Fold this sequence. Notes:
Layout: H1 13-16, E1 37-43, E2 49-53, E3 66-67, E4 69-72, H2 79-91, E5 100-110, E6 115-126, H3 129-134, E7 142-146, H4 148-151, H5 158-168
Parallel strand pairs: 1-6
Antiparallel strand pairs: 1-2, 1-4, 2-3, 2-7, 5-6
Amino acid sequence: MQMLNLSLMPMQQESLHMPAKELQYLEPSQSLSPSSAAVALIIDEDGRYLVQLRDDMPSIFFPDHWGCFGGAIDNTESPEDAVVRELFEELTILIDVSRVSLFTRLSYDAPFIGYGAVDRVYFEVKVANTEINEMVLQEGAKMEVKEGPDLLTQKMVPFDHFAVWMHYYRLGFK
Length: 174
């Protein structure tokens, strides 16, 4: 059997370009800057997840992917305050910070682009179905309520996918 040593092969420029529609999110149209974010796992009365289909714009991270609501944490606010603010900005819903419960924090370092630690802080936010009916989507292509197993089969923002997976199967962890 012959082994192919890719490290010795010259990289061809055209191999870096991935024109397929499903891979366009890998080629942003402008420079993207990661920042720490507060994210909501919004759970309805039936245990389903309210998520957004992100806009199909190459200027954002993971366009045309399903993801959780949330966004950047401003320098002067706590993650809890940030998720409350983001929910108001994205869904026009006022959630009291007492309804926000820390679920997990995902962290990564990005020294290759001059960044230190970047955190995605996930909060569980339980809402009534009547509250969902009153929400007005301000950001994203659409919002939907999805069962955990169905959501996990969708094209999702990778961090959010992992957080939803952990949340949905949390009772199976020891």
